Each structure stands twice: as C-alpha cells, then as structure tokens.
Amino acid sequence: MPTTALDDVTDRLSQVLRSSDADAWVDLDRRIRADLRWGRRIPAVHTWFPAAADRGPTAPELAVALCGPDGRTREAALPHVRHSPELLPLVVIRCADWAGPVRVRARAVLRAELPELPPEALGRLTAVALRTGGRLRGDDARELLTAHVRQVSAADTDVLLGNGDRAVRRLAHRIAAERGLLPPARLAAIAAADHDVVVQDLCASAALAAAGDHVDETVLGPLLASRLGRVRAAGVTALRRAGRAGEAEPFLYDRSALVRACARWVLRQAGTDPVPLYRAACAAGDAVPTDAPLGLAECGDRATDAETLWALTGHPRPRVRAGAVAGLRVLDAVRFRRLAPLLADDSPRVVREAARALAPWADHFPTGALLPPPKGAYEEAAREPGTDPRPEAAPDREHRTRGRLALRGIRSLFGHDRHRADG
Fold first, then answer.
1. Whether the Cβ atoms of residue 273 and residue 265 lie closer than 8 Å to each other
2. Which of 99-103, 358-362, 373-377 shows the highest mean pLDDT?
3. I need a labelling partner for 130 at 20 to 30 A (CA). Which of 73, 285, 333, 416 fits?
4. What is the pTM of this model?
C-alpha cells in the first residue's frame, strides 16, 4: 500500500494507542472499514495485503487488514498479530466477527497470547471485551477474558484493581472479593474511599461478609468514617452484629437519610425507641444536631412533633432551620402563610427548602413568586436603601433580594400586617 495512504491510519492508530479508552478501538475498527468500503484514501486490501503479508506487515497495514470488509483477509491477517501485540484489542473485536472462520481464528490467537500478557495489557483487552460483550457474538471474548482474569496471580489482580477503565475495575474488585484476595480491612478502606458506587457497595458488603461475626474496628472504623452515605449505612448496620448497637445513636442525626434509617433500625433491634432521642435532641436549644429535625419528621408524629419543628424554623443556625422546613414537608405539616416569610431568609439553604415546601401551594402565590426573579430585578432591588453595594456582598444580597421580591407578591395577597399569620 502506498505510504501516503497509510498516513491517516497511522495517525489514528497512534492516538488510539495513547488513549486508555476501550471505545477508541471500536471506533477505529468502524472508521477503517468505512474508509475501505467507500473507497476513501485507502486502496482495497486485496490489492496490497498479499505482498505485505509476505514481507511482514507494519502495524498500520495490519490494522487495516484486520478491519477490512473482506472476511478472508481478516482471517489471514490474524496470525500476524503475534508480531504486533499492541493490536490485540482488534483481535478481541474480531472474536465477535460476523464471519464464523474469522471468529474461530481470532479466539485461537487470543487464547494463545493470553498467558504471556502483562496485567496492564490484560486490562486493555478486558476493557474492549467488556465493551463488545453486548454484541450478537461478543460473549465469547468476554467469557474468555473474564475466566483468565479469575486465574491470574494476586499481584496481577492488584494491578487490575487500579485500572483506568471503570468496567475492568468493577470486575477486578468482584473477582478479588470472590477469591478472598483482599483482607476485610483493605476492603473496608476501598469502600470508604473509592469514587465508584458499585465498587463501594461491593467492597463494603465483601468486607462485612469476610469479617463474619468478628467485625472489629479495622473494618467498622473506615466504614463509619466514610464521607459516602451508602458506606456509612453499611457500617451502621454492622454495629448490631458487632454488639455495639448503642453506638448507632449519633448516626440518627447523619446528613444521609439512608444512614439515619439504618441507625433507627439498629436501635430498635436493640430495644431502643429512636423517637424520644430525636425529641430530646430537638429540644437541646443551641446544641440541636443539624439533621435532627428531619430525622424526627421521618419517624415522628405530626400531631405531637409538628410544633417542635415550627419552633425550630426560628433557630439561629441556618442548617437547623432548613432541616425543620424539610421536616415539616415530610410530616405534611406545612402552612403556607406561616412558612412564606422564610422565603426572605438570609440563608439560601432555607430559601430553597421553603420554596420546595411551598410548591404545592404555587397557585396561592403571584406568578413567579417561587421562581428566580427576572433579569434586572436584582439590580433594581439593590438600589433600595440598606443594600450593601460591595461586590463581595453579592451572594447574600441576591438571596435577600429573591426573598424580598417573593414577599412583595405574597403581601399583596394577605396584607403587610397579616403575612405572618398561620394558614
């Protein structure tokens, strides 16, 4: 094949080899075949491949032959991949080829090359196999690579745990957990720090299963201290098995609803009713835990606890006020006239919760009262007396302005002196 015709393929191949994206190999296969099929840039493979095969094809030539539309050429090109192992991802794609002889030869070539592969190359091939596994005939390569990953050494598996492809990382963690290659403490640490929710759940469950009835601090510590709610919830649930159910109480006030629910379950299993604990926490004045109002609403009684939450809408800490508003919404205890003044709260968090709670009464408000004000409204309101003109005061000024604009319409309905009355 003329050298100039290979320039485009060479550039594409070099980009794919530098990339860690398995989809890049699928796209390379598709684009080369499209160029050959429509006669763009690349001469027909049968006009040059026999000679190239005799002298030993270059990597770009071999890539073109492996991706061409002629099945006999694809089959003939496969044995040459042993001299260009960087093209093995294309062999994985050919394992799902629509031509039977090509599939058979591709699987044989792939099976012969797998034992010598370093873990990094194995990760690249596995990523491509997992991408093409959903094709009509793609399950063979996926099963072959998955079976091989299950048999590699613990050191190679450890390398795969840090693979850049999400699907490969998930597979490696699942296999490592099934084979018992990771101790419970490391599984817990991975669950607490990993950014993938699938890996989090998998490792948290595996850590607790591996620990059995002897869940110690090396497992519970990372789980309970994780910034991820799903992982903390697994740790809180395990407190009961560890005989430490009393330690679930602080998690009644966790920011995650799932963690709060698990804490309530653990305490109930130990014979402790969480509702009195919530009521006591909500009566603690300045020491009210931030999410205690919302937790009380999740398990409390509207007739008994609604007034407690209404009182907390005036708490000095914004997060507590916001939690109280959210709790009123959960308890279905919102009274729109009574709650409307919080649309002018200094805290954006409280304003958002108030607008959300008042949404069912949107038809009681002037049009747009619960939405951001129109363009230019902030500038107009900023000229009102008492407004801080400094640029650094803009965020607070914006939220005060939003509330002021909303209350203008509300007061037009209920009257300036009556807008705080109960609904």
1. no
2. 99-103
3. 73
4. 0.77
Residue 249 and residue 277 in contact, taking contact as beta carbons nearer than 8 Å: yes
Report the distance separating Cα 151 and Cα 174, nearest Å.
Answer: 13
Task: Using DSSP, state whether 138 is helix, strand or coil.
Answer: coil
Taking the CA atoms of 256, 261, 264 and 270 in sequence, report the sign of the dihedral they define.
negative
Which structure tokens are listed for 191? 């669950």
C-alpha atoms less than 13 angstroms from C-alpha of 328 in its C-beta half-sphere = 27
Residue 371, CA distances (Å) to 14, 366, 396, 400, 408 in order: 51, 10, 17, 14, 13
Tokens linked to 199: 């890996």
Residue type (1 letter), 269? Q
Contacts of 318 (CB under 8 A, 6+ apart): 345, 346, 347, 349, 350
Distance from C-alpha of 5 to C-alpha of 64, rounded to nearest angstrom:
11
Q: Give CA–CA dist 40/67, Å, rounded.
A: 15
Angstrom distance (rounded) from CA 85 to CA 282: 66
By C-alpha distance, which of 379, 384, 355 is closest to 368? 355
pLDDT digits (tens, 9 = 90+) for 289-310: 999 999 999 999 999 999 999 9
Residue pair 142/171 in contact (Cβ under 8 Å)? The answer is: no
Rg (CA), the chain: 32
Q: Which parts of 340-403 are beta strand (E)? A: none
Calpha distance 198→191 (Å, rounded): 9
Cα separation of the two ends of the chain: 83
Residue 29 exposure: Cα atoms within 13 Å on the Cβ side = 21
Query: Quick check: 145 pLDDT over 50?
Result: yes
